[in-house]
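Sequence design from tokenized structure. All designs in this work follow the same two-part layout: the structure record, then the generated sequence. An example of the structure record is given first.
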């Protein structure tokens, strides 16, 4: 399925989002917010258009996403923008974004992908490409299966899933290096597939 993705990639030293943008745009419809990006730009796009995914390609630190200049996007901003866009997934392709991902899911988002370590810029395009290719290969949106089949970078990436999507199952935060992948796959096969 072809997704509508808002890719947020402010011009920041140490971040080259061009390879990431090219790879994602090769399989989905992407609205790039690049160059000077402000919170106002993100809110404008999310108010005016619906997106399946908000994708951040920038720096982050536990409780904030870096935008242009000294501007930051706080967890409440991420949750609000996701809601405005009617997004089901926020993909943080940025360092130390686990708290942001958890906050977004606790405040209404269905899924969030994050990293809790330093993400090497030269490798940052690989997992998103694998993830988005997996999504485009199927007629229904299944973020969990796409994540499980993506090259998750030796445990660098994790997935937060809203508990209400896992009927009769305990809430699961999946991080490959710490969890039993086969057990998780068995549990997830029992859940109903939700698509937007």
């Amino acid at each position: 399925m072809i997704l509508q993705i808002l890719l947020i990639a402010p011009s920041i030293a140490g971040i080259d989002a061009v390879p990431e943008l090219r790879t994602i745009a090769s399989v989905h419809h992407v609205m790039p917010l690049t160059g000077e990006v402000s919170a106002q730009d993100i809110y404008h796009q999310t108010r005016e258009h619906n997106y399946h995914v908000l994708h951040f390609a920038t720096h982050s630190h536990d409780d904030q996403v870096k935008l242009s200049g000294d501007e930051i996007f706080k967890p409440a901003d991420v949750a609000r923008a996701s809601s405005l866009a009617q997004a089901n997934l926020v993909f943080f392709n940025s360092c130390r974004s686990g708290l942001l991902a958890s906050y977004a899911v606790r405040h209404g988002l269905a899924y969030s992908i994050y990293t809790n370590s330093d993400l090497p810029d030269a490798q940052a395009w690989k997992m998103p490409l694998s993830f988005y290719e997996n999504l485009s290969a199927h007629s229904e949106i299944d973020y969990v299966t796409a994540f499980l089949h993506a090259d998750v970078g030796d445990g660098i990436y994790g997935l937060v899933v809203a508990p209400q999507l896992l009927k009769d199952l305990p809430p699961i935060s999946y991080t490959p290096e710490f969890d039993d992948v086969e057990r998780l796959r068995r549990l997830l096969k029992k859940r109903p597939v939700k698509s937007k």
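Residues 1 and 136 are 5 Å apart (CA to CA). We note this feature because it recurs in several other targets discussed in the main text.
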